[in-house]
Automatic annotation (TrEMBL):
PANTHER family: ASPARTIC PROTEINASE A1, BETA-SITE APP-CLEAVING ENZYME, ISOFORM A-RELATED. The active site is at residues 108, 295. Disulfide bonds join 121-127, 286-290. Residues 1-27 form the signal peptide. This is Peptidase A1 domain-containing protein. GO terms for molecular function: aspartic-type endopeptidase activity. The keyword Protease applies. Residues 90-311 form the Peptidase A1 domain. It comes from the Eukaryota. The keyword Transferase does not apply.
């Protein structure tokens, strides 16, 4: 754990989020990066049906990714393409098991656990709109069984831990602990475009103290550098939603140099923010510095109620 803490400290300045307006250009596969692309999807028939269950729950759907409330009941780089839904949900594909069972997940820096729906989820409406993990169809599955529950603001899931291989881009993380969700109550996840959540926060906030996926990428020597980075495409006409890079950053998707800030509290990606400016002028609401969290799981900017006084 001492070694892992050393790695974490080395990574404090290495979480990048790049927002560029031009179309994505993916670098070649021999550049040592592991890419997962993010793409847009249309609002298809299944999701129109799901929306009927959640038409009055829009705020809850957005709030489902405002977490910060948890309770426990019991070599190279990799780039993953991301999909963009209404500039609110950016998600990409992973595989769990052998052979891989495909799921779309939000890569969420505001939480630390990986979970997907379980084939044993029978009573939650959300599970009928998403693929479910079948342990019996994986030759690398290992039973765990420890119960777990995660609260995401107004949303929550419950289930139990299992272990299996997780394929992210072109790399395979072996014997990753994750949660099989057997309960997704309410309508929070019914209309969601993603199936589950892959947490990129620190182990300190992990339910059940499960080792996060990106920790195991480092421990198993699967990525070259202790860095991951996001590129989110804001071009609404483009099919590509962006990408997440494990093991580095993609120079095709940013200009100039990155600004580095230290992480002030291990758990979330928390840092000190110097001020809130409008037209280059201070608002006076953060002039003395205040803490902020970089959260890739939500499209919103949130702050204390005093911020509403800014006009």
């Amino acid at each position: 754990m001492v070694k892992m803490r050393t790695i974490i400290k080395a990574m404090f300045a290495s979480f990048f989020v790049s927002f560029l307006l031009f179309s994505p250009v993916f670098s070649s596969s021999n550049d040592g990066l592991v890419r997962i692309g993010l793409k847009k999807r249309t609002f298809d028939a299944d999701n129109r049906l799901a929306a009927r269950f959640g038409s009055q729950e829009g705020e809850k759907l957005r709030a489902s990714l405002r977490k910060y409330q948890f309770r426990d009941e019991s070599g190279d780089t990799d780039i993953v393409a991301l999909k963009n839904y209404l500039d609110a949900q950016y998600y990409g594909e992973i595989g769990i098991g052998t052979p891989p069972q495909k799921f779309t997940v939000v890569f969420d820096t505001g939480s630390s656990n990986l979970w997907v729906p379980s084939t044993k989820c029978h009573l939650s409406v959300a599970c009928y709109f998403h693929p479910k993990y079948k342990s019996s169809q994986s030759s690398t599955y290992k039973k765990n069984g420890k119960s777990a529950e995660i609260h995401y603001g107004t949303g929550a899931i419950a289930g139990y831990f299992s272990e299996d291989n997780v394929k992210v881009g072109d790399i395979v993380v072996k014997q990753q602990e994750f949660i099989e969700a057997t309960k997704e109550p309410g309508v929070i996840f019914v209309a969601a475009k993603f199936d589950g959540i892959l947490g990129l926060g620190f182990q300190e906030i992990s339910v059940g103290k499960a080792v996060p996926v990106w920790y195991n990428m480092l421990k198993q020597g699967l990525i070259k550098e202790p860095v991951f980075s996001f590129w989110l495409n804001r071009d609404t006409q483009d099919e590509e939603g962006g990408e997440i890079v494990f093991g580095g950053s993609d120079p095709e998707h940013y200009k100039g140099e990155h600004t580095y800030v230290p992480i002030t509290h291990i758990g979330y990606w928390q840092f000190d923010m110097g001020d809130v400016l409008i037209d280059g002028k201070t608002t006076g609401f953060c002039a003395g510095s205040c803490a902020a969290i970089a959260d890739s799981g939500t499209s919103l900017l949130a702050g204390p109620t005093v911020i509403t006084n800014i006009s």
